[in-house]
Amino acid sequence: MADFIYLASQSPRRRQLLEQLGVRHELLLPDVDEDAEALEVVKPGEAPAAYVQRVTQLKLDAALARLRRRGLPVAPVLCSDTTVALGRRIYGKPADEADARRMLWELAGGVGITTAQGRGRTHRVLTAVAVGTARKRQAALSDSRVRFAVMSRAQIAAYVASGEPMGKAGAYAVQGRAAAYIEHLSGSYSGIMGLPMFETVGLLRAFRFTL
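^ dTTP/UTP pyrophosphatase, sequence as received from the core. Prediction below:
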């Protein structure tokens, strides 16, 4: 068995978390002609948990095919996907700044959409992770809860203007400036970042990694 894994993700946060675990890894990124974004299209009526797990498996399929095509040394491949959900509504990466402002207004709560206690709304952050080879796959799901404080339109606009929300599910990064507005969270902090470490370690142990 190889002593390293391939990480099929461009996320610097996932690289950081693997480094924190001391897991040796190499990047296995899509070719220029691969339409990686097409894998993240939501099916009509799809539940958030089913969606994030399906997308992660599709990413693993694509990464394993990429590994074979490139003739690289054989090693387990790790894929992960994160989505934010409010009820059954899925919040992916914002299309632009206006979309990011809309997402945050709905997640953090604005006039007319706050809870009875005057707090922001609580949403779920779901991160699926899968490790696989041509012959074996293991997968896990992390399900966390995050509650924002109520944010004003000016606060949301300032945060979006920082550029941090772009490319992030739900238009925020828990490890960044958004932390100033998070009143409460429960579950996996690393899962909210994009790679649940407890679940990831369990998967890697199934592939005989000592952690």
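The mean pLDDT is 92.
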